[in-house]
Design goal:
By secondary structure, the chain is mainly alpha-helical. It has nine helices and no strands.
């Protein structure tokens, strides 16, 4: 648990920086890993269902935002898959608030970069090509990955995994 979840958060962030997409397989692996690993923790069946329900609620809300054009589809699926790991409660609230806060900071930073003299230099590098493009969206996977890493230790699965060390 201490390797799968953080690794997938990093993969989502890097993928979004490089391609402006979060691959479906990242979200699918997150959900499958939760479904396979959670039963081996102290989690009872009712809590397991609450975690899945949290993911469903986040997915419905995010696809509403996606339908309005306010969010990308990969971001919506990533948020829901991560909510599976967070479950209902403080960890999910932290994740959502930190995602919004870090996403806002990321947006402001990218706007500053895109309208600065550094934009032309940044657009010539593979890593920063998309983030410097004024026509590109915001690679929100960066904020989602960072927020997931920040919230994970307070999640039930993160706390369980840390206690096992």
């Amino acid at each position: 648990m201490l390797t799968i979840f953080p690794s997938l958060m990093l993969i989502a962030a890097v993928s979004d920086i490089l391609t402006m997409r979060i691959r479906n397989r990242v979200s699918v692996v997150l959900v499958l890993a939760f479904a396979l690993l959670a039963p081996f923790t102290d989690m009872i069946w009712k809590d397991y269902c609450w975690h899945l329900g949290s993911a469903g609620c986040v997915l419905i809300a995010c696809f509403g935002l996606f339908a309005l054009g306010a969010m990308g589809g990969g971001d919506a699926k990533m948020l829901a898959a991560t909510a599976c790991w967070m479950g209902p409660g403080v960890a999910l609230a932290q994740y959502l608030v930190w995602s919004a806060f870090l996403g806002g900071l990321l947006t402001l930073a990218l706007l500053a970069l895109r309208y600065s003299p550094l934009a032309s230099a940044a657009s010539n590098t593979r890593l920063l090509r998309h983030v410097a493009d004024r026509k590109a969206g915001i690679p929100y996977g960066i904020a989602l990955g960072a927020a997931g890493l920040m919230a994970f230790p307070s999640s039930p699965l993160g706390a369980w995994a840390l206690a096992q060390m």
